[in-house]
Amino acid sequence: MSRFAWCQNLLEYLAGEKDAPPPGFPVALSNFTFWGIWWGILAAIIFIFAGQSSKFIYIDF
Amino acid sequence: MLTKRQLALAAAVLLASLLAMNLAVIYLTRYSLPRRVTRHARESQPAAVLALGNSLVAAGFDETAFDTGASLSPPHGAANLGLGASSPVEQLLLFRYALARGMRPRLVVYGFYDFQLTAPNQFATGDLIGNRAMLYYVEPFFARRFYTLSFHDALQFRAMYAVPMLADRGAIWAKVEILRRAIAEQGMPPQRINRMGRAADFSLLESDNPEDFRRESEASMNLPLAAPVNELFREAQDAGVTIAVVEMPMRRAHRQLFYDTGWWPPYVTHVRSLLAPYHVIYFDASNWIQDDSLFDDPLHLSPRGAAQFSRRLGSLLGPGTADLPAPSGPLL
Question: B49 forms bridges with which residues in the sheet?
């Protein structure tokens, strides 16, 4: 498997499209701690960048 | 495929992560501007004079210069509780907060510009970010009486007010915005900023043109005092506090375009008639600062301008003024 295809498989696995990880990726679906933290990281990224449409005139420097 | 048990356990870890993120938001916003102002209120308990208003007061009222002008001395001098980007609702909350924490001022200086005293406070939850986030955590349900939200937004408000990540989201977004601006400025000439934000942005808060201002003047001629302004003055009067209402200093361009027209004086007369029951002392300070170089941006006084304005205001009010029954006298 090419490096590019491996990365694609990894992203598809992390995004929930595939149930099987690419060869060599150590995290199984049964690892609930990893998946809980991973979803938390995704929630944090959404939270942090959700304000980009807000117009900041006053901003606390 | 995840089993139900694995899904439930992963969801539990996610909830724990969200809890940790809420704790992180509480930590990161512990010195947010509204919290710094409320802390200043707590620390200024003996102050005799309380300045309230939006960023024009926050930037334009210099406590030390006012004290010098009024021959007051700390800690029995002035405390500036002006809050940038605040509406009269937050200003009412700050006044109540100060009183509830034991402050007993003899005088409240309330600064305003344009139609702030009569403009209805109609918000959406999208507006409750930045300094307005204090509406989520300082007397949230008392404050709800003084501004309107749509049915949908009122439901959102109830769901959001107890969750720090949602209530204080604007403080985190502001940090991201500052980072975004820093990245956008790479290789570009730096933009002028001051303590409030990008200087050029503040022209967005003025009317676009005299015609807009005329329309707003006419529309405001029949409006009563905004509910939170009315409540603030009523509570101040009930507490025996003298009220000084100040038209804040504005740049020459603003005065010429808007205040020197025929529409502004009738509006001021209207406002003064609305203020009469509160026996306020009214100052038209809009033209006190003639030198535009004493403004930091289209709206806010620079520290030098603030000192000049505050010293003059202090000297006019004087050390004994707050002890006297407030006159409903002429424009000063």
Answer: B78, B107
Q: Where are the domains of chain A?
A: 3-49
- List strand residue ranges (DSSP E) for B158-280, in order: 242-247
How far does chain A reach from its first CA to its final CA, in angstroms?
A: 49
Q: Residues 45..84 of B with a Cβ closer than 8 Å to A: which? A: 55, 84
Q: What's domain B32-323's architecture?
A: 3-Layer(aba) Sandwich (3.40)
Residue B198 with chain A: CB contacts under 8 Å: 57, 59
- Is pLDDT of B11 > 90? yes
Measure the CA–CA gap between B9 and B7, rounded to whole angstroms: 5
- Contact criterion met (CB < 8 Å) for A32 and B85: no
Q: Which residue of B14, B170, B173 is in closest CB contact with A36?
A: B14
Size of interface A-B (CB pairs under 8 A): 110
Amino acid at B302: S
Task: Name the residue ranges covered by the structural domains of chain B.
Answer: 32-323
- Per-residue pLDDT tens for B79-125? 999 999 899 999 999 999 999 999 999 999 999 999 999 999 999 99
Q: Do B169 and A37 touch (CB under 8 A)?
A: no
- Which strands, in side-by-side order, build the sheet including B78-80? B78-80, B49-52, B107-112, B242-247, B281-284
Can you count the helices (H) and strands (E) in chain B?
15, 5
Q: Are B151 and B92 in contact (CB under 8 A)?
A: no
**pLDDT tens readout for residues B295-309:** 999 999 999 999 999
For chain A, list residues with pLDDT below 50: none
Report the alpha-carbon distance of residue B158 to residue B279 in Å, rounded.
38
Look at residue B242 and give its three-state secondary structure: strand
Could you tell me the pLDDT band of residue B323, with boundaries at 50, 70 and 90?
A: low
Residue by residue, DSSP assigns B250-289 as --HHHIIIIITSSSHHHHHHHHHHHHGGGT-EEEE-TTS-
pLDDT for res B332: 42
